[in-house]
Design a protein that fits this description.
Structural class: mainly alpha
Radius of gyration: 28 Å
Number of strands: 0
Order of helices and strands: HHHHH
Oligomer: single chain
Largest sheet: none
Distance between the termini: 33 Å
Strand content: under 5%
Shape: rod-shaped
Length: 164
């Protein structure tokens, strides 16, 4: 189908134009007044030709390649949740061992407190790593390796797929 500037614009066309105008404004190509004026015109546009005239003097931007701020925020929250879950699992393991060792100690008689030689240093190391912000499985929180993943994180095969 040939391009016809007289075809009625859809809401999606106007939204796409608004997103493009926002990107050009953020890049400094449009002053605040120009941006406001063109944005109003984009939402009032009746045809795709009117929208094209608003964008004619601006370079093309592929909106599909721009990161979605909400997706980035969700990824950060998911990463923080995984980090917190890893620490919960680490401290849960330590507490389970403490309980188990002290039960064994109590059942064998109230002699020397030998479980402290195991749980004390282990707990001190865990506490130190937690205080300085190290990930339970190695590496600093938020530091990425050459693969773009946190150290200690298992690789996933779908990381490079769009929309994930």
């Amino acid at each position: 189908m040939a391009y016809d500037p007289n075809i009625r614009a859809s809401d999606a066309d106007r939204d796409r134009a608004a997103a493009l105008l926002r990107e050009h404004h953020a890049a400094g190509r449009l002053t605040p007044d120009e941006f406001s004026e063109r944005l109003d015109s984009a939402f009032a546009a009746k045809t795709v030709g009117e929208i094209d005239r608003l964008l004619r003097d601006l370079p093309g931007i592929d909106l599909y390649r721009l990161p979605d701020a909400q997706l980035t925020r969700q990824q950060r929250q998911s990463k923080q949740r995984r980090h917190n879950d890893a620490w919960r699992a680490e401290w849960g393991s330590w507490i389970s061992c403490v309980v188990l060792l002290f039960v064994i100690w109590a059942l064998t008689g109230h002699g020397y407190l030998w479980p402290l030689w195991i749980v004390g240093p282990w707990g001190a190391i865990l506490l130190g790593r937690w205080v300085v912000g190290l990930h339970p499985q190695g590496g600093r929180k938020g530091v990425r390796g050459s693969t773009g993943q946190d150290p200690g994180q298992l690789p996933r095969g779908d990381e490079d797929l769009p929309g994930r």
